[in-house]
Specification:
The protein is mainly alpha-helical. The protein contains four helices and no strands.
């Protein structure tokens, strides 16, 4: 059979449930197993599991950014975030005023 001109056949894409993904990721992140071990045991492509693990790490980081902070640090962070929003609004207002007066004086 001549395969020179034909493209390689791809395996059909499999759908995995969220529970399956969470279990596989849990084996890597919480179970102390390597991605290669888990992927081999579950019949997954290593790249797929690496991506699932990467996304799970990002989600965990989003959910617990302040977990190591004290109550005072959390309060200060909230205050600084509010101050940051206020300062950005003031800056935008000043830009608009400067543009208005520049047009008026031109």
């Amino acid at each position: 059979m001549d395969t020179m001109g034909s493209a390689p056949k791809q395996k059909p894409r499999r759908k995995h449930s969220d529970e399956f993904k969470k279990g596989a990721v849990g084996l890597v992140l919480d179970g102390g197993k390597s991605v290669i071990e888990v992927a081999g045991a579950l019949g997954l492509a290593e790249g797929v599991l690496f991506e699932w693990v990467r996304r799970a790490k990002l989600e965990r980081a989003k959910k617990a950014p302040a977990s190591g902070m004290t109550e005072d640090e959390r309060a200060e962070l909230a205050r600084l975030r509010k101050e940051n929003v206020d300062l950005r609004m003031e800056r935008e207002l000043l830009k608009k005023w400067a543009a208005f007066f520049a047009k008026e004086n031109a």
